[in-house]
From TrEMBL:
The lineage of its organism: Bacteria, Bacillati, Actinomycetota, Actinomycetes, Micrococcales. This is peptide-methionine (R)-S-oxide reductase. It catalyses: L-methionyl-[protein] + [thioredoxin]-disulfide + H2O = L-methionyl-(R)-S-oxide-[protein] + [thioredoxin]-dithiol. One of its GO terms (cellular component) is cytoplasm. It comes from Rudaeicoccus suwonensis. GO terms for molecular function: metal ion binding; peptide-methionine (R)-S-oxide reductase activity. Keywords: Metal-binding, Oxidoreductase, Zinc. Pfam families: SelR (PF01641). GO terms for biological process: protein repair; response to oxidative stress. Its cofactor is Zn(2+). Residues 13-137 form the MsrB domain. Its EC number is 1.8.4.12.
Length: 140
């Protein structure tokens, strides 16, 4: 997954395997995808901050989360543009844009544009729940 020197958090494949569950490792480090409508954050409306499950870096805020009914949590923007890395993905016979954590290079999901959801950015960051950890706001 990317060149290790490019990320602030660098761990060996063995270290990632020790720290992550098999499903987390498959998605975060192997660019896998969890089955649609099975993730813990797909429909949650809890206010808070979504961080990378692998390294803890902030990625998204609940204020940009919306219901896209696609089977995965959807956000219209990251909490800061430099929190995520966008990479051209030509796998599976199509061209998509992969979203990775800019801190550790872990796979999060994909971003799509122009789908008509009426969000401020006209983007849908389609993110695997297993790639995220939600820290609820203090008001909860």
């Amino acid at each position: 997954m990317g060149e290790q020197a490019a990320y602030r958090v660098n761990k060996s494949d063995e270290q990632w395997r020790e720290e992550l569950s098999p499903q987390e490792y498959s998605v975060l480090r192997g660019a896998g995808t969890e089955r649609p409508f099975t993730g813990e954050y797909t429909d949650t409306e809890t206010e808070g901050v979504y961080s990378c499950r692998a390294c803890g870096a902030e990625l998204f805020r609940s204020t940009t989360k919306f219901h896209s009914h696609c089977g995965w949590p959807s956000f219209y923007a990251p909490s800061a543009d430099d929190n995520v890395e966008l990479i051209s993905d030509r796998s599976m016979g199509m061209v998509r844009t992969e979203v990775r954590c800019a801190t550790c290079g872990s796979h999060l999901g994909h971003v799509f544009e122009g789908e008509g959801y009426g969000t401020p950015t006209d983007q849908r960051y389609c993110i695997n729940s297993v790639s995220l950890r939600l820290e609820p706001s203090a008001q909860q």
